[in-house]
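Regression test case RT-17, inverse folding.

Input:
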């Protein structure tokens, strides 16, 4: 006869959770059986499992339904005082939103958030900055170096989520809560060390729930893995409203704040900053960072008007072809573009245009450390490769854009008019692209290229 007590199991079984897809396995494996990612399984201690089954159809708290067209107060965005930050967010911080910001160590995440927090605090907003990695004295030292030591920010160093929420529950609700970083947070209701899958998921859930219930904008700083992905469970990216990536090379001064997910604005929007002695400075004209100011044309150089969200950015693509005298295997080296995309483009140039790259080493670089993901860069890369192979420079002040198919056709890309206007604004006089470019812009001569052999003829003609 059952006495009414719940008997816990004697020993919970170990389980391993994939940090990429969230699948569960009862033994560790080098490769996840579901998503095929390597070294993503980490041990997760499950909650105590009771042997008695529970009926979830009763005993809960009734929820309230509202109509979709019910009147509501529109949420007003709060400006961070940094136009580039606001642009990446879609116009500013939305009250009650949860933002996850990732980036390499030392890239400037804490610096950017401290500058934004200082601007909001000076504007009369209540800002709370909780650091789990630095002591308050270290944060104050950075603020002094940035010139924000006098900003009325509530600063604390803590890692206990219970302590943080208890303190915030007694004080006035802040307009912005910054947690730096979520991997250092710990909940005493969950087993495991800080940074484990269960701890990161549980701590983020409690903080996000507080932000939603109190209309407080929440920013969670996240560590990244060696592959550049945000560390922890992939479900963390589904829980938040905005996922941002702070990117850049330490050898270059520029930094790019990229929006990867945004429930309140455009995806793939970017904000561009430059690292200076006084912190991060906004770059109003990003194209100036990625273009060289040479006066004479150079073979193997083409300018591509890339599109990041709604922002056009002109970048320079550089190619170098080195003929090999011996029978050594030629190298293919790419910086800032996809290796597979370059291999495909070289195959098309050899098959459709009769060019020979099999006995030459090919080096491709996107200047300024910029990384291209726009498929419209195909024509600019092809122009740079043909120019380097023929050792003939492309026309001065010319821009190239268009997607190249396996048949050698130059296909249209989105927002051709926007790309042309950005090129014309920066003094470019010629542009080459697909026949279906949507707009023509005054001040810039546009020439259409329907197939790749026409590009080769144009470059060879000089």
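Golden output:
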């Amino acid at each position: 006869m059952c006495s009414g007590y719940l008997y816990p199991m004697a020993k919970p079984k170990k389980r391993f959770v994939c940090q990429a897809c969230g699948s569960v396995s009862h033994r560790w494996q080098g490769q996840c059986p579901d998503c095929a990612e390597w070294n993503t399984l980490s041990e997760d201690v499950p909650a105590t499992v009771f042997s008695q089954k529970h009926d979830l159809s009763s005993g809960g708290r009734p929820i309230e339904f509202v109509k979709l067209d019910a009147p509501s107060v529109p949420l007003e965005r709060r400006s961070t005082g940094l136009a580039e930050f606001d642009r990446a967010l879609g116009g500013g911080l939305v009250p009650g939103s949860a933002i996850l910001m990732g980036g390499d160590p030392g890239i400037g995440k804490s610096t950017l958030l401290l500058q934004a927090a200082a601007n909001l605090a000076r504007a009369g907003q209540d800002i709370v900055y909780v650091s789990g990695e630095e002591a308050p004295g270290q944060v104050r030292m950075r603020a002094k170096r940035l010139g924000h030591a006098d900003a009325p920010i509530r600063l604390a160093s803590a890692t206990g989520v219970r302590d943080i929420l208890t303190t915030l529950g007694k004080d006035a609700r802040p307009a912005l809560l910054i947690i730096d970083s979520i991997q250092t947070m710990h909940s005493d209701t969950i087993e495991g060390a800080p940074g484990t899958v269960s701890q990161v998921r549980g701590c983020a859930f409690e903080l996000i729930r507080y932000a939603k219930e109190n209309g407080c904008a929440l920013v969670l700083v996240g560590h990244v893995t060696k592959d550049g992905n945000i560390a922890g469970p992939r479900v963390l990216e589904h829980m938040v409203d905005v996922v941002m990536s702070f990117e850049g090379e330490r050898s270059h001064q520029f930094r790019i704040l990229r929006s990867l997910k945004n429930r309140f604005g455009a995806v793939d929007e970017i904000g561009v900053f430059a690292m200076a002695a006084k912190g991060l400075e906004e770059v109003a004209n990003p194209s100036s960072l990625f273009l060289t100011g040479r006066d004479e044309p150079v073979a193997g150089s083409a300018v591509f008007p890339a599109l990041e969200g709604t922002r056009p950015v002109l970048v320079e693509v550089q190619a170098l072809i080195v003929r090999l005298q011996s029978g050594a295997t030629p190298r293919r080296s790419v910086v800032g573009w996809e290796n597979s995309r370059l291999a495909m483009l070289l195959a098309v140039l050899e098959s459709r245009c009769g060019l020979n790259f099999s006995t030459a080493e090919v080096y491709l670089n996107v200047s300024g450390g910029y990384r291209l993901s726009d498929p419209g860069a195909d024509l600019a890369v092809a122009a740079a490769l043909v120019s380097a192979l023929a050792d003939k420079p492309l026309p001065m002040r010319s821009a190239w854009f268009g997607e190249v198919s396996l048949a050698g056709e130059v296909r249209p890309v989105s927002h051709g008019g926007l790309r042309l206007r950005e090129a014309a604004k920066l003094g470019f006089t010629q542009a080459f692209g697909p026949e279906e470019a949507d707009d023509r812009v005054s001040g810039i001569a546009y020439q259409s290229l329907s197939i790749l052999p026409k590009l080769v003829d144009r470059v060879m003609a000089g």
